[in-house]
Fold these 4 entries.
Entry 1:
Amino acid sequence: MTDIIITQTAPVLVAIDISKARDEVLIAIADKKRCRRLTVLNQLDDFNRLITSLACYGRPVRVAFEATGNYHRALAYHLAAAGFELKLVSSVALARTREALHNSWDKNDPKDAQVILHMMEIGNEQFYHAPLVRGTNDIQELSKTHDIVSKSKTELWHRVVAPSCGTEF
């Protein structure tokens, strides 16, 4: 009779709440009850330390985070380059889920990491495409530049035209 060998393919779930200076990381492994919590500074050394610790699990790794301005871009690039699966969590969905789970709108980074992990477990996440890895960085930068120029044009238009219009209708 042959032996059947079943390998562990359940991914390691990593929820990251990203902020300007540091990121709160919550790591959940399928067969463990407790989660591992880390604080990662937005520095290359800490990114490499996180990537090394995630690679040591010997399982597929799925990382989810909320895109916050541009702060997520550096970490996301390094995680994608390391070969991890990246997911995005909607800011609105995160706020609503946090409010529903904790019966409060109060926000803090460790709590947000827990909510992101919960959203990963129920499959409420989106695909993330790293602009540098996908080659869409130039398009994204042009889009942001167009947005800034359009807002500046509208603001200038309102300054020039609005005062000359007067209050008569």
Note: The helical segments are 44-55, 72-81, 91-102, 109-121, 131-134, 137-165.
Entry 2:
Amino acid sequence: MNYIAWSVLALAAYSFVAPLMRLATAGEGAIPSTVAAFVANSVLVVATLAVIGLTGDGIVEHLADPRMRYVLAAGACLAVGILAYYRALAVGRVSIVAPIFAMFFVLSSAVGVVLLDEPVTARKLLGVGFAMVAVVLVAGE
């Protein structure tokens, strides 16, 4: 599968995360968002270990790689982002929380340009601008 197919699969699967987490973490007798995050991410860990087992990708030989510091930093950012996202879903509406959260791609794009020297084009800037307008329109009250 190429990166576009993987991206579409990710989009399809991740589209259900917010509504399902909202159902689990909101209302009377709700599961605390931290517990939901732990369980959901435990499923992620188990699934990832299964894929590692199937593909034969090793773990130990990569632990000493100097680039592992980026993986650890990404993990810390992921932890903060997911915990905050699940908490927001527990107390807010999916139709507002999800579009605001989705703005991460705008910031990620900016980081890619600034830190990774990725090219900026008028088309990309226009797309990011439209995305920002879309989020304001969708998430606005």
Note: The chain has two domains: 1-92, 94-140.
Entry 3:
Amino acid sequence: MLSMKFDAIDRRILAALQRDARLTNVELAEEVGLSPSPCLRRVRLLEEAGVIAGYHASLDRKAVGLGLTVFVGIKVERHHDREATAFREAVKALPEVVSCHLVSGESDFLLQVVVPELAGYEKFLLGTLLKLPGVADIRSNFAIQTVKAGGVLPLDHLPAPHPPADGKT
């Protein structure tokens, strides 16, 4: 459920910032067809509403020595609140885990793990993952090649604002 209404300018702002979050406010305003002050107000509103959750640099994993990506399916023993909370909190604290999802299917959680190489994953698996609270089974899938990563979110599903009944804008 959408927490706020988006107009065409909001969608253009979000699309532009997803492409390049380093745009200056003046550049962004020019791109979306606003003057700088109203553009900045809209960006601030989107930030305050939590639509813009933050700004990040996108790093090349191999360039920083993280050449192996592993998708790890984890089955937990029980789904009691205490164990599930302990597992979630432990996973959040692991820097090697770049994403964690509660999923349906044969696993309960799907983790995306980045490490330098296979020996690094073996150490992480044996020394960390197998010791997480409630872990019953672990299945590892190694990425051979990354075809697409870090994509921008599609925004075409956001409803277009309806023009006023009198036809004036």
Note: Residues 160 and 166 are 17 Å apart (CA to CA).
Entry 4:
Amino acid sequence: MRLIEPLLENYGPLLAATEAGAKRVALADNLAVGGTTVSKGVMGEAIRYAHEHQMSLDLVIAPRGGNTPYDDVEIKIMEADLLEAQQLGADGVILGALDANHRIDREALRPLVAAAGGMTMTFSTDWDAIRPQDRGGAIDWLATQGFERVLSAGDPADRLADWTATKRLTDSTGLTLVPADVAAADVAQVADALKVNFFLGTNSLDF
């Protein structure tokens, strides 16, 4: 069974997601700039609503749009948001952090991983900015830290080839590749080529 997890902007689209039969949704604000963390109030109401309708809810944790690296204050903001999400009962979180050399920012991520204890962790599409020669070490580290999924929109030059290379890495460590922003018409082809059944789509309600 193929599952498309819609990445919804704020609280409003949750009703439509329920009516469309969503079993898992992701939530962010400001999708035009890549997605930022929703407010505490939105977190609480969205988690309550999702659980009342037998849906799992993932939250994007990002203090601003744009590229990483994050500074110390931004990491503290993310840590506070993660603790809030955990307390409110979020099922999972989507986050990432790279350093200025486009490598995993391990120092930044360690306190965030600790704050996310008990929630499913998905590494964000920051993955796509990591150089191919650095990805093996990156995936090994993510696996040791308890990440379960890697989100990737793929290299625009050849998305399928890039996803295939990433999937070899995720398979070797027990993580799951989640292709992002796949058009509904292309889901079956990508699923068959990669042998994946889980996708994340921006505001997609095609289940």
Note: The mean pLDDT is 94.
